[in-house]
Design goal:
7% of the residues lie in helices and 51% in strands. By secondary structure, the protein is mainly beta. The radius of gyration is 25 Å and the shape is globular. It contains two helices and 36 strands. Among the domains are: 24-114 and 433-438, Sandwich (Immunoglobulin-like), CATH 2.60.40; 147-278, Methylamine Dehydrogenase, Chain H.
Length: 450
């Protein structure tokens, strides 16, 4: 019995020593990962091994002096969000330091972060196509060669790769998935289906999940598959009257139906469905969760733009007879852009900026250009620029065979062409954040926790 008491006493003493050691152990930065921008220009998520003192993190955080930012969170999870209205023009150097809630100092670390997404595009090259990436510092870079033609190109929402619909025959399309490293080097490329398909539609969310609607030969219906970011497939019992779109923040899908649109949860969430009647289509999502831009079709052939917000009926922002080609949204619908086309003999392409109350802030004619049919308009908050696929038209009315990507600076109204004809294009979210060096441990001010 005495021996048992001695062993118990030693075990308790050892546990107490271990607990004291763990309490005094310095906190560590476990993960730093780029995140969706939300209402800011760009953001990263920080995960620490211990609950951190927020005031100390904020006081010791180092960014370029002219870069406004916010530090949000609590405990061991924080979000650094870049704010302001000045576009990001180069990679940023970031230093992280501070103390945990017990006053133990975090070893300072320095990181280089490229918040701006790269442009992913396809370009015909003879009977095949090239897959390219573009950044300001490097220009166009070839990633790989694609056999046949590219019918659809979708950068995945987590920046880890892309999905393609390709074809060597009009009735034999293939859905492929590509995996990239953070510096946009091709790691792997593989088909998602063994058999060819005659139709495929793609959608992604911020987590990198991929939804595929497809029809195979001699199949009278479209099947719906959800591939998660790790490549695991799940069949979804959905039917739709058009392309299904994943909600960027995850867990939901917008499903077009004959007389309206439905918002449906995705597994493993409990089944739930909300329905909005009327001849409406989803046009674009806003970065702020729960907000989207809808297009409503009227019996007299007019179209209107509506803003959908949580807990509110759709609110009309614009109505007109022009062809409504695409839309884009910033923040919590603080700014909305719509691309309009009017006229037949002498078509006029216009870009209109609206605020959340439907007031037209700007109306700009894009003279000498015509849109690429079916292309979408995409907003990059880090550059504060819209991505447009445009063809230049000559005075005689002839236009380019292939479009070029153009960046429209929303604050200055400047339109910049990215030279080089391409077929499809989209923003690939950046995952480029690398550690430069570890700073020497230094004593941080012990401040009250937040």
């Amino acid at each position: 019995m005495r021996r048992l008491w001695i062993l118990l006493t030693l075990a308790l003493a050892l546990a107490a020593v271990q607990q004291q050691w763990l309490q005094r152990r310095p906190p560590r930065l476990l993960a730093i990962e780029p995140a969706a921008a939300g209402s800011g220009l760009a953001a990263v998520e920080l995960q620490f091994s211990r609950p951190m003192d927020g005031a100390s993190l904020q006081a010791n955080l180092q960014l370029p002096a002219d870069q406004p930012h916010e530090l949000l969170g609590e405990g061991n999870r924080w979000r650094l969000q870049l704010s302001g209205t000045t576009p990001i023009s180069k990679p940023l150097t970031l230093q992280i330091a501070g103390v945990d809630q017990r006053g133990n100092a975090l070893e300072p670390s320095q990181w280089q972060w490229e918040p701006r997404p790269a442009l992913l595009a396809s370009r015909p090259a003879g009977e095949n196509e090239q897959l390219l990436s573009w950044q300001e510092a490097t220009g166009w870079q070839e990633l790989t060669s694609i056999r046949g033609s590219v019918h659809s190109l979708l950068p995945l929402g987590n920046g880890a790769g892309a999905a393609l619909v390709t074809a060597t025959d009009p009735l034999e399309k293939q859905v492929q998935r590509l995996q990239f490293s953070p510096d946009i080097t091709l790691i792997d490329q593989y088909p998602l289906e063994r058999e060819p398909v005659v139709f495929a539609s793609l959608s992604t969310n911020n987590a990198g999940d991929l939804l595929v609607q497809l029809s195979k030969l001699q199949q009278s219906y479209a099947q719906v598959e959800l591939w998660n970011a790790k490549g695991k497939r799940r069949q979804l019992p959905m039917t739709a009257g058009g392309p299904i779109r994943l909600v960027p923040q995850g867990g939901l899908a917008v499903v077009p139906e004959e007389n309206g649109v439905a918002l449906q949860t995705l597994p493993p969430l409990p089944a739930k469905r909300d329905f909005l009647p009327g001849l409406r289509d989803l046009s674009s999502f806003c970065p702020q969760a729960g907000r989207a831009v809808l297009v409503r079709h009227w019996p007299d052939y007019r179209r209107s733009i509506e803003l959908l917000e949580p807990g509110r009926a759709p609110r009309q922002l614009w109505i007109g007879t022009e062809a409504l080609l695409s839309s884009a949204c910033a923040g919590a619908a603080d700014r909305i852009w719509i691309l309009l086309l009017s006229g037949i003999a002498d078509p006029l392409l216009e870009l209109v900026e609206l605020n959340r109350d439907g007031e037209a802030l700007k109306r700009m004619a894009l003279e000498g250009y015509e849109p690429e049919p079916g292309s979408q308009m995409h907003y990059d908050p880090s550059r504060r620029a819209l991505l447009l696929m445009l063809k230049q038209r000559s005075a005689q009315g002839a236009s380019q065979a292939l479009p070029e990507a153009h960046l429209f600076a929303v604050d200055t109204g400047m339109l910049q062409a990215i030279p080089g004809p391409i077929g499809h294009a989209g923003w690939l979210p950046s995952r480029q954040i690398t550690q430069l060096r570890r700073g020497a441990p230094r004593r941080a001010a012990n401040t009250s926790s937040t």
